[in-house]
């Protein structure tokens, strides 16, 4: 007997804090005007997507001591945008990245609880840490922490926020204890937390929200990040674009859940994915090549090469050969505030590999960056893209995808109109929302229901 088809989860990432957007396209719009956010959100809701996702940029990037202005350099405050979108949508989940390195549990818990009330139970929190002191300079403490400390603080931050969310159960169970017993308190909203990173007590002033807690997302790919997701998250982002790599990541993370008493269906794996549609596969392939060349201008190619070389390469021709000089592997880096820098842990080895690729294929600097950079995940006709997405999900390479269009705000429209109906026809994507909350969309239990299951067992 064949196993039933998995239902696909789809979400939309409002492009930004990256170089995905094609600025030169006549249809490209603002990344700060509310009309852009509203159009994007309404399209996602019309297509019955699970949620909209906003990333976060806490400092303008710099390269060579100057602001890096070849992609989105900033964004309005996440909570402000999501709260405004709650007023122009009815079902769409609202997910925001909020940093656990710089903020405090009380303020973040209060903001998410408020958003959950305003949206009728549609909020989600992508819990991230910050890896660089450069961004931390904007904040009172400086904010820089070693990796193991970042995750230690993040775990306690999330646990403390959870205590605040749960403090409005009144005389109900407030928190599981290490010995299997439960803590009770008759005073709704009261909390006491004393730990390594936070020592707070008082009264939480936002009543229990429709979801109890926001849905929790996690984006780290390190071993610490995967463990954090397995222990505490409802969904984890993935950066793996091939079927084989996706299956390996999926298996690894899902197998970690049992150690925390969790089932496989209690953590969703959702890679980010770009796409290019055409009337035919051949047309889509040609369009994808054009999109990549628009995304990677000559100036952008040089800047990306500097991520590896850690040198000023502005004198080099992007349509010429790679530098003969080796990368500078010093402690200081020419690019600050760029997560991509961490991808190249052995710059000398990367430089050797890239030189070999360029020589073998007769690639210029720009060609190399285009070919080795993030390619479009799904390219083809609507039928081809729908089939590929479904194949990934049914093969346990993911539970769905977070789509990142290259045009804002209308880049999602074609997918909503042409691909989604095909997935619906195959019976692998909803035709109507099943319930009012984001937990309903994602098939996740309400925290109180999960607690009742544990008590019963």
UniProtKB/TrEMBL annotation:
Keyword Oxidoreductase: yes
Gene Ontology molecular functions: monooxygenase activity
Catalytic class of the enzyme: oxidoreductase
Similarity comment: Belongs to the NtaA/SnaA/DszA monooxygenase family.
EC number in record: 1.14.-.-
One Pfam family linked to the record: Bac_luciferase
Keywords carried by this UniProt record: Flavoprotein, FMN, Monooxygenase, Oxidoreductase
Residues covered by the Luciferase-like domain: 24-395
Matches recorded under InterPro entries: Diverse_substr_monoxygenases (IPR051260), Luciferase-like_dom (IPR011251), Luciferase-like_sf (IPR036661), NTA_MOA (IPR016215)
Protein's UniProt name: NtaA/DmoA family FMN-dependent monooxygenase
Top-level taxonomy: Bacteria, Bacillati, Actinomycetota, Actinomycetes, Kitasatosporales
Species this chain originates from: Streptomyces luomodiensis
